[in-house]
Amino acid sequence: MSFSESPAPLKHYAKKAFCAGSSSTHTLKTPKANKFFLASNGDASTDTATTATNGAATTAPTAGSVQDSKDPLTVAFERNSHWRRNLAELQPELFKKLGKGQSPEILWIGCADSRCPETTILGLQPGDIFCHRNIANILVPTDLNSLSVIQYAVQYLQVKHIIVCGHTSCGGIAAALANKKLGLIDTWLMPLRHLRAQNARMLEALPEKERGLKMVDLNVRRSVSVLLENPVVIEAVVERGLQVHGVIYDVGSGELNELDISEDDEIVEERKKAFKVEE
């Protein structure tokens, strides 16, 4: 099954990061350069990429060195072997540390699209991000899958940030804007169709190429709202400053842009009264 994709380019959104439920600003720290990322993701136009660590150079194959005739699964296992050896050489203690447990500071809620791998997008590495991905990064308050991930990440892993990420050229968004019968997936896309209906006039007034991007924006904001109505999230925001962010990833440029989701204090307080639960 394939969906048509919206080709609209991503416009620049406000990059100021806001603490959810507060008017105060917050800026996400830029992660340190991932040395292995540089070693294993070189220029695809060359056969190898090289980086030096502690005086030792390591070489990794890049996309340009993979023969098209090879079976994709075979290539994947070969890459895994090379990745494991290189990473163990660059960071000898990493796998031992990961074997003992995890302590990610970010929960990433994104789309299952193959072009949106969260660890790669952020230049991080295994153990840095706890993630949940589905078609079109949809959050609904009755989905036990996402609810379980959110509770575990917030209550037990004690993440400091939750990021909801939408992206350009999203097939799920394009499907929701179309009227073609798709089967079982139509049920999953129902929240997007409701969103489309609620904003019909505004969407229809936009040029066709911009509707998809606007729907991506609306969907991220709706998912953020669902998060902020979750009692587990509300408690963590109030008691330890958990922050929720909405972002859009441009698959055509690799750029990540954060939306302004700041709210008036009155709205925040009303939501606490309505959704916070106590023992």
Automatic annotation (TrEMBL):
Tell me its cofactors.
Zn(2+)
Q: Cofactor comment in the record?
A: Binds 1 zinc ion per subunit.
Which reaction does this enzyme catalyse, per its entry? Answer: hydrogencarbonate + H(+) = CO2 + H2O
Known EC number: 4.2.1.1
Keywords for the protein's UniProt record, in alphabetical order:
Lyase, Metal-binding, Zinc
Q: Name one Pfam family in it.
A: Pro_CA
Highest rank taxon of the organism: Eukaryota
What does UniProt give as GO cellular component?
Answer: cytoplasm
Question: What stretches pass through the bilayer?
Answer: none
Q: Does the keyword Zinc apply?
A: yes
Alphabetically, the GO molecular function entries are: carbonate dehydratase activity; zinc ion binding
Listed under GO biological process in this entry are: carbon utilization; cellular response to carbon dioxide; cellular response to oxidative stress
* Classification via Gene3D superfamilies: Carbonic anhydrase
Quote the record's binding site residues for Zn(2+): C111, D113, H167, C170
Cited function:
Reversible hydration of carbon dioxide.
Q: Which family does it belong to?
A: Belongs to the beta-class carbonic anhydrase family.
**Protein name from the UniProt record:** Carbonic anhydrase
- Which source organism? Knufia fluminis
